[in-house]
Amino acid sequence: MLGQDLRSAASAAGHEVLALVRAELDITDPDAVQRQLAQARPEVVINCAAWTDVDGAEGDYPGAVAVNGAGAGNVARAAAAAGAWTLHVSSDYVFDGAKRQPYLESDPVAPLSAYGRSKLEGELAVARAAPGRHTIVRSSWLFGNGGPCFPATILRLAAERDELTVVEDQVGCPTFTGHLAPALVDLAWSAGSAVEGIMHVAGAGACSWYELAREIVARAGLECRVHPGTTEEMARPAPRPAYSVLGTERGHTAPRLPHWRQGLGEFLAAEVPAR
Ligand SMILES: NC(=O)c1ccc[n+]([C@@H]2O[C@H](COP(=O)([O-])OP(=O)(O)OC[C@H]3O[C@@H](n4cnc5c(N)ncnc54)[C@H](OP(=O)(O)O)[C@@H]3O)[C@@H](O)[C@H]2O)c1
């Protein structure tokens, strides 16, 4: 999902782009990654490849961490060897959600889920493999027109059903990949000490999944009632942070994205053009 928007954003910014899917490059194969990057000799490498099945990771942590941990390290190591800057994408799920004010880059991490632990392993692996030559961007609640995502699921379910129940006690920052991608391109190509290390970049504003679902249904003009539910009532295999709003202490070096409502409007304009 993010990878498709990144390819478009980087091309639109005038960069020559080599965008590889898993069938072309498996990041768990260190030799293949090393060969590919030594041959391409890129200026920057942006890693969007990940095991993103949050619930599935609970039953296969070795599988998740092979991609999100060791795989992320393979990419950063090969990028550093090729003289490239690494921009790695990480997640708000490295936090436990106990805070009630926006999480800053220096806040302690304490992932609740196997997915969150695997993403944290990736951050550590990237920092080890490309010291002083990487940016780790933590983002959250991604949605976009290039892949399955929460708004697309709600649009489908709300068209099929009269009523939906959606969790109200998880709050975060929905982030439109069409907004995140150009910001990542700018960051990656301004490589240097100002952008080195961890940076939080997410859609402005915050809401619960319930509020987001209501907004989607209302703006798409669908006749479906949306009810608030609790995490406890709607148990899922992976625990999720109750609060994972991302703030930043990186000043003007951290890009500020538009409000999630604006992102949702752009998403819906592409998904539901005739309404
Ligand atoms: N989605 C969110 O809400 C969210 C929130 C915060 C951060 N993030 C992070 O943002 C990044 C992009 O996420 P996304 O939502 O765009 O995910 P996505 O649509 O699931 O894309 C992940 C891609 O990684 C590929 N991949 C998986 N294993 C691979 C491997 N071993 N080698 C090469 N490619 C592999 C997948 O290929 P297949 O389709 O073949 O499996 C897929 O194309 C990820 O790092 C994710 O952790 C996502």
Textual characterization of the structure:
- The protein is globular.
- It has helices at residues 2-12, 30-40, 54-59, 61-81, 114-129, 150-160, 177-189, 209-219, 260-271, and strands at 44-47, 85-91, 134-139, 142-143, 163-167, 171-172, 175-176, 197-200, 207-208, 225-229.
- It has a single domain (2-271), classed as 3-Layer(aba) Sandwich (Rossmann fold), CATH 3.40.50.
- It contains nine helices and ten strands.
- The longest helix has 21 residues, at 61-81.
- The two termini are 24 Å apart.
- The protein has 275 residues and is of the alpha/beta class.
- It has a four-stranded parallel β-sheet, sandwiched between helices. It has a two-stranded parallel ribbon with strand order 4-7.
- It is 41% helix and 14% strand.
- NADP nicotinamide-adenine-dinucleotide phosphate binds at residues 1-3, 21-22, 26-28, 48-52, 67, 71, 89, 91, 119, 139-142, 147.
Draw up the topology in text:
Layout: H1 2-12, H2 30-40, E1 44-47, H3 54-59, H4 61-81, E2 85-91, H5 114-129, E3 134-139, E4 142-143, H6 150-160, E5 163-167, E6 171-172, E7 175-176, H7 177-189, E8 197-200, E9 207-208, H8 209-219, E10 225-229, H9 260-271
Parallel strand pairs: 1-2, 2-3, 3-8, 4-7, 5-10
Antiparallel strand pairs: 6-9
Helix pairs in contact: 1-7, 2-4, 4-5, 6-8
The protein binds NADP nicotinamide-adenine-dinucleotide phosphate (NAP).
The site of NADP nicotinamide-adenine-dinucleotide phosphate (NAP) has 23 residues, from helix 1, helix 4 and strand 2.
